[in-house]
Design goal:
2 copies of one chain form a homodimer. Chain A is α/β, with parallel strands linked by helices. In chain A, 45% of the residues lie in helices and 16% in strands. Chain A is built from 10 helices and 10 strands. Chain A is globular.
């Protein structure tokens, strides 16, 4: 099936998921929607998030996508089941995929999860992890300042001080696996690895979800039959703030063309 | 005129303006709208901000306000003239008021301005300052991480490190007046004063705009004739995120009742 794969996020972070999809599935076309006019979702309530997510899914369906990746952890936590029950195409979230890889990776059954905020979806990873293996000790920590620090350039000293605030406790808990529960975190993966030490396995949900999509395409036979160089991807954002060109390049790794679309 | 005063902001920060209005004008009723579902505005483009601001003004007019305070620096910088030309009631922004007080306060004609982001409205304070006194040397600095740090509780060490990053240059420029160009900043006024030193005069736009409103009410004769204890203020927000009760209390100084209203 040569239709594109839809990917959406509350903003720009989902581009790290696109980067991994392009690496793992180089022949597939991507249609991306980032809701930059209404970011962040993390502090919004469930009904607002469901309404926004529904508008985005309808937009992606108008682009004839065959599968949708919800690259946003907040939407994955609060609206994935709700979306899946309303639409017939496969809709993949980042949380279950990340939890699965985390459970597979841990040796001492102690997993940490870092997230954006202690708001809605707080139990989503815990629930997913315990459904896979009930005995696991999981520790969750919200790190609300990491996203703004990353978006403002990732100042090394500020990043380190924020990591110290947020992650020191994880070192004392002896976790051996850390799930990066936000699509921004791959950009400071090296700093996190350095802070936690080389023995802690980091689970990057962008990478994990790309392999999940690969499996689904293989199992359902809806992968593309085309074998073209540089398939044309489409990037839509609900707002193009100043400095966006540089910022998007940092997230996806190369300069992209994009179109502004206002929803709602 | 016993109609209420309307105040709006992209989110919760404008509550520091309400706090000052209540202090300076204890008999006036306030209707507040905070666009918490669509905050922050600082990274949005002008047409999006104008559209959102127009929706909010229409909402406040439906509450029969006699005057509107635009407590948001971004809206004041990008949409105030546009709004004033469309509506006949007085619409007051924070920038001109802050600039006026700053120019009045400086002795050495060197003024600093701190703002949320180096995006739109970057020249708004400079323009306002130079219209009042062309010879003034003004220095502007965007401090994008201060708002998230304040909203996450104002960790002292992180605040200090961020202030060092942002304000060190101001100390070398020998400014004697610093305009706090964001309604969040009064919450870390003490830390900023301590960092800049006691000789630097801080201009808190919340306080300045409250006195501006007092003047307008006196000059136009539209102040309330009522003299009632505890007039009933109304607070509307487009979303009520978790933890909002505590956060709003920090901004306005006491617990408030509020109603959720979705615009657009």
């Amino acid at each position: 099936m040569n239709n594109p794969i839809g990917v959406f996020d509350s903003g720009i972070g989902g581009l790290t998921v696109v980067r991994e999809l392009l690496r793992v599935l180089p022949d597939e076309r991507i249609v991306y929607f980032g809701d930059t006019a209404r970011v962040p979702y993390g502090s919004k309530s469930t009904d607002v998030i469901q309404k926004f997510a529904d508008q985005i899914v309808k937009f992606l369906l108008s682009k004839e996508v065959k599968l949708i990746v919800v690259a946003c952890n907040t939407v994955s936590a609060t609206a994935l089941d709700w979306l899946s029950s309303r639409y017939s195409l496969p809709i993949i979230g980042v949380i279950e995929a990340g939890a699965k890889r985390g459970v597979k990776a841990t040796r001492n059954n102690k997993i940490g999860v870092i997230r954006t905020r202690a708001t809605i979806g707080i139990k989503a990873y815990t629930t997913a992890i315990h459904q896979l293996r009930p005995g696991i000790e999981d520790h969750s920590k919200s790190c609300p300042l990491l996203v703004p620090i990353i978006e403002e350039g990732g100042d090394v000293e500020l990043t380190h001080l924020a990591l110290t605030r947020y992650l020191l406790n994880f070192k004392q808990k002896d976790i051996d696996t850390l799930i990066l529960g936000c699509t921004h975190y791959p950009l400071i993966k090296d700093e996190i690895q350095q802070f936690m030490g080389e023995d802690v396995k980091l689970i990057d949900s962008a990478n994990v979800v790309a392999h999940e999509v690969l499996n689904i395409l293989n199992n359902t036979g809806i992968g593309t039959s085309q074998n073209i160089n540089n398939p044309k991807h489409l990037f839509y954002f609900s707002d193009i703030p100043r400095g966006f060109k540089q910022l998007s390049k940092r997230f996806i790794g190369y300069p992209i063309s994009y179109t502004k679309v206002i929803l709602g």
